[in-house]
Amino acid sequence: MNFSQARQRFYQEINHSNQQIDLAKAALYIAQEQFPELEAEDYLNALDEMAAEVLERLDEERYPLRVIQTLNQYLFEDLEFRGNDSNYYDPNNSYLNQVIDRRTGIPITLSVVYLEIAKRINFPMVGIGMPGHFLIRPEFEGVGIYVDVFNRGEVLFPEDCEAKLAEVYGQRVKLRPQFLSPVTSRQILARMLTNLKVIYMNAGEILKAVSAIERILLLFPEAPNERRDRGILYYQLERWTEARQDLENYLKNQPQAQDAVIIRQLLARMNSNR
């Protein structure tokens, strides 16, 4: 595979088991494609220093709520990390180096900062892939609380999560158990890349959108919708051979897909251009 150095590093990192993937490193390797001068070690050291600061503030009795309060005080009051309400779809919000430098991000990238500091202070937390709004929670049996890092570490109970869903979608949404299930490092990275994919597609930056999809497919090689989307982008770039390969693969695996007729029309157009 003729990968850039950043892509090679990303591929090597995600080639570990889920438990062994270094989430911060992999996220920084995503950013390194956009910022080639980025030194991942600088940002890993910054996370180490933040964790050391938090450790100095913690009491010996580490009750989950007290640890969360300490983390919140340090990150959101002392360092002034914040959710970017004013420019939510700025791609910089999805790059971990930029989030650390600017102390500004979106739910998932701010959550990665929080998770990485929590890991370094031996306070286990997990990501929660709630639709439309990423959360985290302490990984202790029966704790039953969630943390909304985008909103300054607000502590939520399940009923609050349901209210948050209604706020995101503008209507009442029934809270299903899977909405509050923990997600893996691979899923977190794929969600970060999906955000970038959508941002770049909407901005018409097709090559950057393709780059995001390529990395999603390194994480989940069998993801049919990603192959379809990449095929459509290749079609827009008039890269017919690659477009045909992805779209034919999509139809082979999803012959009854709702958009199958449209995809067959695209393939027919390309075949007529041969």
UniProtKB/TrEMBL annotation:
Belongs to the UPF0162 family. Residues 42-193 form the Protein SirB1 N-terminal domain. InterPro entries: SirB1_N, TPR-like_helical_dom_sf. SUPFAM superfamilies: TPR-like. This is Tetratricopeptide repeat family protein. It comes from the Bacteria. Pfam families: TPR_9, Transglut_core2.
